[in-house]
Amino acid sequence: MSSAQGEDGASPPTRLGRILLVDDQAQNRDMLGRRLERRGYDVVLRESAVGVEEVISAENIELVLLDWMMPDRSGSDALIGIRERYDAEHVPVIVVTALDDGDIVSKALEGGANDYITKPIDLRVLTARVKAQLDRRKAVLDLDAIRDNLERTVQERTHELVAANETLSAEISEREAAEARAQSLARHDPLTGLANRRHFLEELERRLGLVGDESTAFALMFVDLDRFKPINDVHGHAIGDQLLQVIGTRLSACIRDDSFAARLGGDEFAILVEDPGGRDGVASAARRVLHELAAPILVNGLKLTVGASIGVALCPEDGRNAADLLQRGDAAMLRAKEERGAFKFFDSSIDEELKSKAALETELRSAIPNGDIIPYFQPVVRLDTGELAGFEVLARWPHLVRGMISPVDFIPVAEDAGLVDAMFWALLAQACRKALDAPGEFVLAVNISPSQIRDQWFPEKVLRTLRETGFPAQRLEIEVTESAMIGDVARAKLALMSLKNQGVQIALDDFGTGYSSLFLLRELPIDKLKIDRSFVARILTDRENATIVGALVGLGKALGLKVTAEGVEDEATAEALRAMGCEFAQGYLYGAAAVLPSYLSPSMALAQLQAAAR
Questions:
Q1: Mean pLDDT over residues 405-431, rounded?
Q2: Maximum distance among all Cα pairs of the chain, rounded to whole angstroms
């Protein structure tokens, strides 16, 4: 891709390294390639990971930027192929992923990736990480050269050994220092200075090998930051990296000398606490960590509060091997996450919960393609006339053996298992077909997840489903939350405009609860605002709440947007909303979500749903 001259016609600066950029998206690939070249790097572009091993050799590649999600050959498969031929010290690989997902990051790092970065890419962060990996590679090459040179020196000067003893000792010391530096780079997280995942697993295995008959030999604490992702999304990766550096320093400062702290990846950390003095001692150590991480952190003039949740597994009580301890510590951390800012010991109830979730996940994988997850429809009515205006589609699972399984139980399992996307498309197709069978021209509203709004093929998938089912685009309403779009408003705008141009309506859900509502109203093609039920529920008892709702309704009307109030449960609330000028409402007053009665007229269907709700 390189040109012979820079943009101003002058000779380019000295090249800093030769990078192979593998990304199937031409726009992403070309833009990032140009920016890296302007910063002094030679960049080789490839749209596919097929044959990437040969390209590394043929092009003398020093570092690989590897997109994780590619059609012809996945980043995971390519990483395996690279590591079969090149080690991580001589050909570092930085994985690029659009999903800030702990499982993907863990898989990449365990598969041999040196580092990772999430999309949208902050170029400053990327260049810093590229430089760190190339510096580390140079240190390794320098070490190789020192080793080769030393061996030659030993062979040439064997006969001068006595006379050259002092010189040789100095060279050996230099070699040992270089090896120590290389080992340190290979076993420590370059951002925080803490041990990395590889070093942590080695230390865990070492300590397991020393365990005898003690009741509690050591404790494994999983530490997961509570509010890091929204801070990182709002303020950017550069602020996020500085925040992680402070977290690493605080962790090191608040643990004993015989404890061992590591950054496992992302915002996950782990601590091994040696001979903790039973559960009371572990609890004391966990409280100390929580206290340190809950204190505000000042970064670039910003006062940020993160906090953490901790899961604890005890050895040998909860396991005598690394796999069991890691699984159980992680499970206890997820339980602590439910409360935030807490720590939880692993216990049998968590184990039972894990087994239950695993069983539910297994059934869910069959239930989605079999059509067992079905759409229920909650009515949306016109406040002035009480007429049916449309329905919001909600997922329900009427299990043949367990009965109705609550979404509260199966949606989190679907999210953890990566099944939400498949479930959405199955539900959308079912809902469109059922709505076509019902009388009336009502609007169908569906909620989308953050990952879907970041999927560049999302608009095309929606329109394909509409074509396959025959459902008119003008009758579909896509509901998206404010928080789902923070971090990549440009991508969200592109996706929503594509749908809007085809007639699909766009609603901003949970309005008023996100980070930048007014900014989004200006930037995005919004047709409707949905006021969150947390505001609506208290308009009769809280004057301030009523003022906020009135202001939101007024804002929507001033911008020419439709406004729907969620969570309307009584006529008095409905009357208050009518007085404010709110156009639409949904809630138990008008009917709970239910199977759509397709054989009834719209008015009769609404009456039946309202009767069912009572």
A1: 90
A2: 105
Q: How far apart are the first and last CA of the chain?
A: 67
Read off φ and ψ for residue 335, nearest 5 degrees: -65, -40
Rounded distance between C-alpha atoms, residue 350 and residue 104, angstroms: 24
**Residue 420 φ/ψ region, left for φ over 0, alpha for ψ in the -120 to 50 degree band, beta for the rest:** alpha
* C-alpha 280, offset from chain centre: 34
Q: Cβ(200)–Cβ(264) under 8 Å?
A: yes
Closest CA to 432 of 404, 398, 397, 391: 391
Strands 528-531 and 505-511: parallel
Between 516 and 400, the higher pLDDT residue: 400
Question: Which tens digits make up the pLDDT trace of 220-261?
Answer: 999 999 988 888 877 888 999 999 999 999 999 999 888 999
Cis peptide before 120 (omega within 30 of 0): yes
pLDDT at residue 2 tops 50: no
> In terms of DSSP H, where are the helices of 486-593?
489-500, 517-523, 533-536, 543-558, 571-580
| DSSP track, 455-474 | -TTHHHHHHHHHHHHT--GG
Cα–Cα distance measured from residue 411 to residue 408, given in angstroms and rounded to the nearest whole number: 6
CA distances from 199 to 86, 188, 418 (A): 20, 7, 29
- How distant is the alpha carbon of residue 400 from its chain centre? 34
CA distances (Å), origin 429, targets 341, 425, 471, 558: 41, 6, 9, 35
Q: Which residues pair with 399 in a beta bridge?
A: 403
Q: What is the pLDDT of residue 478?
A: 94
The DSSP secondary structure of 387-400, one letter per residue, reads -EEEEEEEEEEEET
The two beta strands, 476-481 and 443-447, are parallel
- Residues 609, 387: Cα–Cα separation, whole Å: 13
Mean pLDDT of 348-355: 77
Across 359-369, average pLDDT: 91
Q: What is the pLDDT, as a whole number, of residue 602?
A: 55
Q: How far apart are CA 333 and CA 310, in angstroms?
A: 5
CB 410 within 8 A of CB 360: yes
| Cα 360 from chain centroid (whole Å) | 23
* pLDDT (tens digit per residue) in 28-85: 899 999 999 999 999 999 999 999 999 999 999 999 999 998 888 999 999 999 999 9
Contact 147, 174 (CB under 8 A): no
- What amino acid occupies position 344? K
Q: Which two tokens stand for residue 593?
A: 């979500």
Helix or strand or coil: residue 586? coil
pTM of the model: 0.54
Tokens coding 429: 């197709």
Question: How far is Cα 131 from Cα 17, in angstroms, rounded to an integer?
Answer: 9
Q: Give the number of other CB atoms < 10 A from CB of residue 30.
A: 15
Round to whole Å and give the CA distance between 249 and 124: 23
The residues, ordered by sequence, that sit 6+ positions from 411 with a Cβ below 8 Å of its Cβ are: 395, 420
Burial class (CB in 10 A: 0-12, 13-18, 19+), 303: exposed
The type of residue at 214 is: E
Bridging pattern class, strands 388-399 and 403-405: antiparallel
